[in-house]
């Protein structure tokens, strides 16, 4: 039993092993792993954070982080899309104005495996976490709205059934907020632009909206920008701790491959496995220390959030930053210990390196996390 959700076999650890078997191919082809999400749905994981009254698991942050971290060991691109799914269902389930839509989306996830994600980033705006008004606009059309604009880095775009689009109204005093868009609506178009070094299978393409008609109930909470304030600490915890768990999972996969390599590799001049060398043992011990720190920091913070004793947004931002740098260092050290074997395309370490470097891109980025923590400590926030 997992937070009220009874998983059908296979377990998420078994799923991770299955996903690992195809991860290299999806990375090489930059293809979206649709079969992975069918498997996640069959296991009940796409509705993990959907409230129980809507057919989901009502899962908390600690369980969600454990699942995302495990799946990331097999396929981090799949884990990223899953993390976004879990975050969005948790968040809309908390918003009073979204109650009706949350029930509709939750039932779709739990019963039919429908995916949802928020689309916020734009070519000119960048991430709205740093402020600014989106160029994606809503204009009145009768009782409803018409949406036009472009979003970039729309994670999971090929597999989404629903899109939560950050937009501004065309009014004398613009209001902003998320609007719900069916992915198959007339005027929605995906441009396959995603060709990054890491997380190549995440399908984070551009999505273009060309005069998409929406009913009024699909824009339930539009406010002047100043009325939104800063994201609350709970939202920050979900956003940061699932990302920390994801990249720790990537680092753990690198560590696991390294351990197998060091035990199997027997240079002729040594006459024994590399794992017998004290230098290797110490280096692996340093890797273990970083992984332990990540696991405990994220797990303790997630458990505190579930108890209603969550940390501040500045603190969880620091945990994400620490976890990201630890994960990157783990993979880099694994490659250094393996030499040319680590960068060979036939081995997974070079893919783990490309994937783990994406950790620095997620909000909050290191400079923003340190600035927020520093201002708080200095009484300047």
Automatic annotation (TrEMBL):
The keyword Oxidoreductase applies. GO terms for molecular function: flavin adenine dinucleotide binding; oxidoreductase activity, acting on the CH-CH group of donors. The keyword Flavoprotein applies. Residues 16-86 form the Acyl-CoA dehydrogenase/oxidase N-terminal domain. It comes from the Bacteria. Residues 241-363 form the Acyl-CoA dehydrogenase C-terminal domain. InterPro entries: Acyl-CoA_DH_C, Acyl-CoA_Oxase/DH_mid-dom, Acyl-CoA_Oxase/DH_mid-dom_sf, AcylCo_DH-like_C, AcylCoA_DH/ox_N, AcylCoA_DH/ox_N_sf, AcylCoA_DH/oxidase_NM_dom_sf, Mito_Isobutyryl-CoADH. Keywords: Flavoprotein, Oxidoreductase. PANTHER family: ISOBUTYRYL-COA DEHYDROGENASE, ISOBUTYRYL-COA DEHYDROGENASE, MITOCHONDRIAL. This is Acyl-CoA dehydrogenase.
């Amino acid at each position: 039993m997992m937070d009220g959700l009874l998983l059908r076999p296979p377990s998420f650890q078994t799923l991770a092993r299955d996903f690992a078997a195809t991860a290299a191919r999806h990375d090489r082809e930059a293809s979206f792993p649709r079969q992975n999400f069918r498997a996640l749905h069959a296991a009940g994981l796409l509705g993990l954070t959907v409230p129980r009254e809507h057919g989901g698991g009502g899962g908390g942050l600690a369980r969600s982080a454990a699942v995302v971290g495990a799946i990331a060991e097999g396929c981090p691109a799949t884990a990223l899309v899953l993390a976004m799914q879990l975050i969005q269902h948790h968040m809309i389930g908390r918003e009073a104005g979204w109650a009706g839509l949350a029930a509709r989306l939750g039932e779709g996830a739990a019963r039919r495996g429908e995916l949802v994600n928020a689309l916020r980033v734009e070519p000119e705006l960048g991430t709205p976490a740093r402020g600014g008004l989106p160029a994606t606009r809503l204009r009145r059309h009768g009782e409803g709205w018409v949406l036009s604009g472009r979003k970039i880095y729309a994670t999971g775009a090929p597999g989404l059934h629903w899109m939560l689009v950050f937009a501004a109204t065309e009014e004398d005093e613009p209001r902003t907020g998320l609007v719900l868009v069916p992915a198959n609506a007339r005027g929605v178009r995906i441009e396959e632009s995603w060709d990054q070094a890491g997380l190549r299978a995440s399908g984070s393409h551009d999505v273009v909206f060309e005069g998409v008609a929406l009913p009024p109930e699909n824009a339930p909470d539009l406010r002047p920008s100043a009325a939104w304030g800063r994201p609350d600490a709970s939202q920050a915890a979900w956003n940061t701790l699932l990302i920390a768990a994801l990249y720790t999972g990537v680092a753990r996969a690198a560590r696991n491959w390294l351990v197998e390599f060091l035990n199997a590799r027997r240079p002729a001049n040594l006459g024994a496995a590399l794992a017998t060398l004290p230098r290797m043992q110490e280096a692996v011990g340093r890797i273990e220390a970083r992984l332990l720190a990540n696991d405990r920091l994220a797990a303790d913070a997630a458990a505190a959030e579930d108890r209603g004793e969550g940390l501040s947004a500045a603190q969880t931002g620091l945990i994400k930053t620490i976890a990201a740098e630890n994960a990157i260092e783990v993979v880099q050290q694994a490659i250094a210990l393996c030499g040319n074997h680590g960068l060979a395309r036939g081995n997974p370490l070079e893919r783990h390196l490309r994937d783990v470097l994406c950790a620095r891109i997620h909000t909050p980025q290191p400079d923003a996390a340190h600035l927020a923590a520093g201002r708080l400590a200095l009484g300047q926030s």
